[in-house]
Amino acid sequence: MVLVLALVVTGVVLGGRWLLHRPVFEVRHVTVTGLRHETTAQVLAATGLGAHPAMIDVNPGAIERDLLKFPWIARASVVRRWPDTVVVSVTEATAVAVAYGPGHHLDYVSAAGRDLGPAPLRADLPTLAVTGARGSWPFATRGRAAAYVAGRLPRAFAYQVRTVTEDRLGHVALVLTTPVRFELGLPTNLHAKFVAVASVIAHSTLVPGDVIDVTVPGELAVTAPTG
Length: 227
Fold this sequence. Notes:
alpha/beta, elongated, Rossmann fold, 6 helices, 12 strands, about 230 residues, Ubiquitin-like (UB roll), six-stranded mixed β-sheet, 2 domains
């Protein structure tokens, strides 16, 4: 009796798998949303969905991990909708700065410090400059603080920031187009520091070369250029 039951169960399982691999249960429709820099054709090729696999063989988790290999894709969600549709939703990263990559050309950089690929020389974003870093972006352990700050610059003065620098200790500074320099220190308490920066820009008369220390927002210090 047990043997008969086992054979029946095995037959049902095998029959079910055979049925689910019939053409009616193949991926026939793929909807991809959220793309701006990558293309649907690239997504279909990288995930294998363009080859019309059986729905039962589609592994959403594996596909999501594959999609994160694309430079611009920050998050991905894959949902199967039986009998023949897969919906792919992606969220692309936002470029917050540029940095010099291999070959001394500019690359876009995300707030997480990810290299997003080539950028034009006239990209209207601040440039990341990392003191003492060897080679080109992305650096193994450096520059993340500068990218983090660049991603949080408020609209009130973000357009005035020409360079975001990071020193060997991870201290960050903003160099404006004027040019004046704001020392932020470590990338903490940024809201208060940004409020201080905006207040100085709005209410102070600055000259090129001024250095304003907002490391402690309530105790601003201005150093005038020498010579």
